[in-house]
Amino acid sequence: MLKVGDKLPQVTLYEFIDVPTEGCSLGPNPVDVAKAAAGKTIALFALPGAYTPTCSAQHVPGYVQDAEALKAAGVDEIWCLSVNDAFVMGAWGRELGTAGKVRMLGDGSADFAKAAGLTLDLTAKGLGLRSQRYSALVKDGVVQTLNVEGPGKFEVSDAATMLQQAKG
Question: What average pLDDT does range 86-97 have in this prediction?
Fold first, then answer.
């Protein structure tokens, strides 16, 4: 399992871009985790699935609400990871107003979750293999703090906890 001091898994995530920019075309774009995290402080949080109750009502909104405070505490980017495709993550981000605040990154094949050792098997509930709920403060690709939730819990991976850790 991913732990403090580890480098982030060397995988590719996908991000839906609504407005093309230099180097990023409209639609899904690959995000090389190592390159994207290099030289930055990232507040990363992962969750079981887009549009699920806790994720939609509390987890993502907390990071959207605290985005400016996190950036003031030295966080360069906030990443939301979920075992969903980039299209779903893009639509969910639009609905939750994440633009310019939280990068919504799709881990559609659970490559990141598997490499991190943080999978959650929700097959019995019809959801298949997902990511556990957790957060991590990452500096230059190295995990500084890691907050893994217990089953069915939402107590330590929230934006308020991350903000306290970023303030250090």
Answer: 95
24 is catalytic: no
| Domain containing residue 112: CATH number | 3.40.30.10
pTM greater than 0.90: yes
Q: Does the residue 1 lie in any domain? A: no
Which of the pair, 20 or 37, is modelled with greater confidence? 37
Note whether 138 and 41 are within 8 A (CB): yes
- Residue 18 structural domain: 12-167
Provide the domain count of the chain.
1
Average pLDDT, whole number, for the chain? 94
Q: Which of 33, 44, 47, 55 is catalytic?
A: 55
